[in-house]
Amino acid sequence: MKDYIRKRVLDICNHILESKDTVRQAAAVFGVSKSTVHKDMIERLPLINKRLATKVRTVLEQNKAERHIRGGEATRKKYKEPKENDE
């Protein structure tokens, strides 16, 4: 594994553990795709550090379990805000 990939994997890992960000949020912060973040965390991180991989997987599973709630909140907020173009 190339050094820049190893560094990116560890940087993203530390970011997710500190902020509890979702894959999508981490991808936006680091300027990579969701697929890259997911592959880094699920496939590459266990090769580098199994202990960190276990911790990150726990955060990602928690985010996955909560995503239906986040989606519902976003929809509720969308329809609760008054529209500016209604006249």
Task: Write a concise synopsis of the structure shown.
The chain is mostly helical. The protein has helices at residues 3-19, 23-30, 34-48, 50-80. The protein has one domain (3-80).
Please outline the helices and strands.
Blueprint: H1 3-19, H2 23-30, H3 34-48, H4 50-80
Give me the strand/helix succession: HHHH
Total number of beta strands:
0
Q: What structural class do the secondary elements suggest?
A: mainly alpha
Number of DSSP helices?
4
Overall pLDDT confidence:
91
Helix content: over 70%
Q: How would a textbook summarize the main sheet?
A: none
Report how far the terminal alpha carbons are from each other: 58 Å
Given as residue ranges, the uncertain stretches (5+ residues, pLDDT < 50) are: none
Radius of gyration: 16 Å
The outline comes out as elongated
Beta-strand content: under 5%
Number of domains: 1
InterPro entries: Spore_III_D (IPR014208), Tscrpt_reg_HTH_DeoR_CS (IPR018356)
Pfam family, one: SpoIIID
GO molecular function: DNA binding; DNA-binding transcription factor activity
Protein name: Putative DeoR family transcriptional regulator, stage III sporulation protein D
